[in-house]
Prior knowledge:
The complex is a heterodimer of chains A (151) and B (1146).
Chain A: E1 2-6, H1 10-23, E2 28-32, H2 35-43, E3 49-52, E4 56-57, E5 70-71, H3 74-84, E6 91-95, E7 99-100, E8 107-108, H4 109-119, E9 123-128, H5 135-148
Chain B: H1 4-12, H2 17-27, H3 30-41, H4 44-50, H5 73-86, H6 88-107, H7 110-124, H8 128-141, H9 144-155, H10 162-175, H11 181-191, H12 197-205, H13 214-223, H14 229-246, H15 251-265, H16 271-281, H17 293-300, H18 304-314, H19 321-333, H20 349-362, H21 367-380, H22 385-398, H23 408-416, H24 430-443, H25 447-457, H26 467-481, H27 484-497, H28 501-517, H29 521-534, H30 538-541, H31 544-553, H32 569-581, H33 587-600, H34 618-628, H35 631-634, H36 643-663, H37 670-694, H38 701-729, H39 732-743, H40 758-776, H41 782-791, H42 794-805, H43 823-826, H44 835-860, H45 879-889, H46 895-942, H47 950-973, E1 985-986, H48 987-1001, E2 1006-1013, E3 1018-1019, H49 1024-1042, E4 1048-1057, E5 1061-1069, H50 1076-1089, H51 1095-1099, H52 1107-1117, E6 1122-1129, E7 1132-1140
Parallel strand pairs in B: 2-4
Antiparallel strand pairs in B: 1-3, 4-5, 5-7, 6-7
Helix pairs in contact in B: 1-2, 3-5, 5-14, 5-15, 6-7, 7-8, 8-9, 8-10, 10-12, 12-13, 13-14, 14-16, 14-23, 15-16, 17-18, 17-25, 18-19, 19-20, 20-21, 21-22, 22-23, 24-25, 25-26, 26-27, 27-28, 28-29, 29-31, 29-32, 31-32, 32-33, 32-34, 34-36, 36-37, 37-48, 38-40, 40-46, 42-44, 42-47, 44-46, 46-47, ...
Amino acid sequence: MNILLVEDDDEKAQDISRFVSEHFPTAKIEVARSLQSGLRAALSGTANIILLDMTMRNYDRTIEEEGGRPHHFAGREILRQMKREDIRIPTIVITTFDRFGEETEEMTLSELEIDLRQRFPDYLDTVHYRANVDQWKGRLLPLMKSVLLNK
Amino acid sequence: MTTITQIRAQLRSKPNLASALGDFRSFDSAATILQFGGTLATDARYKNLLCRAPFPSKLNELAAEPFRFRVDLDKSIAWVTSLFVSYADRLNEYVQVRGAIERCHLVGTPDQLAGELTLAQARLGRSIWLVDHQLCQTLASDDSTLRGTILSDVMHDLKVPSVARHIISWLAYRSAPRISVSDVDNLLADISFPDNGVGCLVHLALGRAPEIDEELATQLLYSIDNLPIIDQYVYFQLTLAALAASGAASAQLQRSVASMLKHLRLYVRDSLLDRLITAWSGAPCMPDRMDLGPALDAYSAGDYTESTRLIDATLGAVPSIEAVQIAVRSAISSGTDWSPPADVSSDSLIAIVAADLVPITLFSEEAVEARIRLEKVALVYSGCSWASSLMSALLRQRHDEKVWRPSRLQIFHGFRRSLDQPLFAFLLPDSECDAYLQSCAAEGFAPATCAALLRIIRDRGPDTVPPWRALRLEAYREARSGDFARSASILNEAIAFGSDPAIVGEASLLLVQVYLASGRLRDAVELAGRLVVRSTYFGLALPIPQLVDEIIAQHDEPMSDPGSVRGYLGVAIVLDIYSRQIGSKFDAERSDSFQDVLRRYRVSRASELPNYVGTLPLSELTYFLRFVCVADVLDQSLQLRSTKEVEDERVSILVSVSSMLLANSRPVPVVLKDEISEISTRQVVREATRRLDKSKVYVNVEGIRRGIDVALRETWNRYKLSTIQEAGDLELETLRKIVESALGSTVQLARIRNPLSATDQLFHLMITELRDQFTQNKEFGLNANLSTNIRHGYVLRELRTPLASRLLITNKDSESGAYQPNSHWLDRDLGNSDPVALDVVFTALSTGVDEKIEHINRDLLRIRSEINPEGLFNYDLHTQQFRALEIQLGPLESYEEFVSQVIDNLWAITERNLKRVRDVLTSTIQSDFMWLISQFEQSLYANGVDKQAPLLLNAVTLVRQEVRDAIARVADWFTLSRSHDYDDFALKIAFQAGLQSVRKYYAHLHISETFTASAPIVLSGWTLPIFARLFFLLLDNAASHGAGNRPALNIEVAAEVDETTLLLTVSNDLDPNADFVRLDDRIAQINKEYGQANAAERAGEEGGSGYPKVWKLLNFDLRSPHDLAVSRDGYRFVVSILMSIRGIRT
Lengths: 151, 1146
């Protein structure tokens, strides 16, 4: 089983990967660290489930590459492109934020969830992540099981 | 039948007069109120309670609050109508004065306008209407003092009714310089909603037409009850215009209002009332006159000379937007230019409007700016009826009411226009349109024009209309009746054979609308794309939002679907113009459309598209490549994996576009070349900066070699002699053999060496000397370079920047030395937190971060020694290491070889030290920073910051990865560069490289810069790190010391060069509130100390001004004789450096 984790925060990515590996030891976890690499991996269509961050830079950050411009709704953009290209993969959004975007684009997490639910049939749910609180694990696990164990 | 006597008796019978009057206005019939309201309001006994100051000399004479009972709309209208009838003489006077003032705005001198306004105040008192015109007067006379006085009188006087102050504040805002129409609309959308009476009032005052119903109209009239009669009259008309435009009045109300308006019209001669009566009664109410009738008829008949002559003859006396429009269109149609007649000043507002109407009518590129200017004029002068004429003209170009149902805004402004015209008919329902035009014709108002216009609603009309105009009218009629195919066919014919650019533009625009209305999206989009490419003004004139809605509706449908518009250039162009002129809402879809074009033409990169120039139209392809294929779109292509690849592709595209244009004999815009140059410079600077970052750890070995050559060579010679002598003294092997032979048994030699023999001491001395020079030489050694290239500002700025950019840490106050309070966050609503406690939390983070950075600089990034025992650069050599080196290097024959090998060993040690630094930074230091941030976050929660402060918590989340990235960047500095070869470079590149670092570290500061050079200055590549660091030091000084608390800084660099010298002058502006006495003292001190004996000592220290570092760079690294002087020139700080560039200029 293939799990695609799209996350640009190294610590958060490690934390989630560790948790997922504990519960799905046979799963192959691919980590993408930006909108571009996440989109590329998602459009390849090989993942069974996608764990998706929302706010990311355009490219993977390296010493040479500063990451390009930031996208407040990078995760939504990946979902939009998947829908447009008819790539159907169940997706869970994992985010640390309660509010997204700026000025006219600004929206709360609840508003974003409604938007995602209305527009993207493969969007499952949103898990709110905090590094020092384990609540997210209890939310994420049943969601992932509902997809991966029913396959 | 009720009489006034009975009404008075009724009022007297009640104990409370105010309450009795309230009952009268609330419970008597509208007819009674209409009949007696004005009489009561002007009666001295009741006036104080009903209309205290109808024409006040000051606005503070007005009642503070409106009538305290809200009554039904028809009774409210009856009340004000009755008031107006009672004050009819004054209102007729107002109509005259209004005309004169509005005329003065268009063609009068400032003195004439001032005279009219003074007269208006004398006759009619103060009013919002008058204040509004006075504010406009200050614009014409550019008198900001007068503007301040006018506003101060009203806004600071709390006795002025709040509604008056509220409206005037908006009027002042919208007429302020540099406030755009979108600024006003955005603010309206943010804070003034038209969902209540006062909100609607503001919108109406600004010429907006809110959708209102009877309830809102009732609130509106209630809001103005205590205003001067003039204002009540103005807003009464606006309310009825908006209500009619909203189409929300009941039939009963329509009858009632029409009746009352007709009653009022008997007393007040105002053409605006005629139009309202027409709208509310459903029957034409003809004005007394139509001034432009003959000119209109001449224009309709194609006699442009006559139409222009008639306009010229009357414009000075009766100026109007409608007249200017006829003159402009006549000139365009006859292929001539038009300027206002001699009696109209070329500086007058009407001349300015006329000049802007020309490009708008021609749909030329200049029209974009012209339209923005005219929309601002219409907004600023929204109190003038001619502003509605102007808005009507602008709105018609986008949405012609002769063809399409008029919008609410069109109807609203149509009612308020300054002149009556037959076109008013098209604002009325179909059934009334015909009647109005016939009535106009019957009255002799532009009968030929009326007859021509009638062709639009029924197929008949005079033959006097020129054939091409008849064709156009026919196209209008077919579109209006819904026969879009026929209309499109006629319009295509008109476009193909038309020669009048205005007519062709209008026909093209209408054709897009007709295609859109008939569902021919691809045709609509492709034509829209062609038009936008011809002039981006079409982006403002075309129905772009509707086109985009249709595009988006089928955006996700497969490209293979028949009828799919995916992949056509027109789609990308329409989405692009939406992005540029309307908003970013569909930017993602614009990127999709770019990728769809590539997909449709089976190319992976846009730079390959010029191969399709035969298939794709050149103009549209050029637009697509130039304007759609920009960085923010290209970076969505999965083919391009980095910023550099995007830039490279953009350059390829620009080169292709240039070649394509040249091949087709088209001019190549200079901006293409400029953009290529800008991208190339950016890439060179970025690459140079990256390489400079990699070459921060550096030792000038040649400098060290030169410095110690004589002394060390002497030591080496002594050492070699000593080793030879030692060998001579100790021919042990020979001795052993002799003893062995004598004893007849094997003899083992036991070597016992004094560890500090003279030879060893010499060897130790040389190694130690070289090591100390390598690490500690003040000019060339590692420590000096660590200090200049890393410790001085770089570590601090790099690690502080993410936290400072997220505004999580603050700087210290220069006076008190304490951290400044974090007002950015503390001034916000942060949940249930205590600001004092939070201040401590923020200060703790700032302190922790700075202490950690100080620890890195002061203790870790040091050569290890007794003073710096934690220094990560450890060059300690133990006895065994000396021995090993002696075995390795002792046998060497030449001094040069020995020194080289020692240096190689020192580099090897350096490599190990660098790895240690990188490891410590990315492990211990990173953990320490993460711990600091976590502690900070927990303290925030503990102090009551919760989800009510998402921006703060988001900042904390985001900053973690940014700090990790910053630490990784710092760690990456600790590598040895394999190559120190740089290409020769222009001095400006070094400046840009230095500036780039400063910009990154001072992200909050807007830095504007100029760089000028007296001649091209290209320098040898090896000096690039020196000049880039020199600029960094100077610009960093400017940013940290020169900006003060300002958000902006200006830097000017001038380079004057001759054969051997370079005079570099770097200046920055200063905070006008800076302590100049102190600064001048500091300047004197810098000049005194620069390059003095202790400069080398101080080059190895961090902090301060950095001038010792400058001295080190120029004196030792560049080895350039130079002079440096700092000075203050008024509000500018200036550094001048005169240096020799002999041998380094190529």
